[in-house]
Amino acid sequence: FHLAGIRLAPKETLKIPVLFMPAEMKIYKAVVVIHVMRENGENWPYEVTAESNTDLNRNVTVAENGETQGILWIYPINGTPEAPQQKSVVIRCEARQRVEQREELLLIGVMPGASALPDAGNSAVINTEESSNTPEVTDGSFATVEFLYEMQYQSDEIKSQLESLVGMQLVQKEWDTESRIVTLIFNVVFAPCKPMRNEATLVIQCTAGGLWKFPLVFIATEPEVDDVINIEAVGLNKESIVGFKLTSQTR
């Protein structure tokens, strides 16, 4: 869109609306350019020459006499579409036990071809240090499409509780070229040490564009009874004592 003739008083703030409504799961790029000129049509006396700073040359418009006619602010915009909220995946295990199960996650609308991820600092970029893998789909024209994934937690407390109890690894990927649906098969390991119910989110990003979030619910049920302790009374109003050992699994 193009806005012209907007007057701004000194120190006044101008809000510029940006609407993003993606039609496909791919990266969209745009640039917002703000061009400011004096209301009276006069130029700034500062002259921009070939020897001037490169950034300065790029961010001004110059009149015929070499004076500065206008100032430019250029804002690149990277749009990453996000899929609708997915259905929760529940992983259930008895406390002090270990469960290992496979989960099939469907990514709908993946686009072929590859493009670079947005620049670092963009909130849509997955933290590759925490990503377990960067697998490639090796199916014809989709060979360069990669997926990054990581677990995100609602708080640091939940992260500290789940991080050492949960393992997730991508073991298989399938591509349906007609429906453009990618199936990622993850192996999930959950080994809780006590009863709990916590939530996390598996975030998957495609380098060709698109973000999918899968809510995960980890439920640890009560463990089985370790043993039954029988105490026989030696008589009325007399104490009977039974001893048993408890071993801590941590320091």
UniProtKB/TrEMBL annotation:
InterPro entries: Ig_CFAP47. Transmembrane segments: none annotated. GO terms for biological process: sperm axoneme assembly. GO terms for cellular component: cilium. Residues 82-221 form the CFAP47-like immunoglobulin-like domain. It comes from the Eukaryota. PANTHER family: CILIA- AND FLAGELLA-ASSOCIATED PROTEIN 47. This is CFA47 protein. It comes from Callaeas wilsoni. The gene is Cfap47_5.
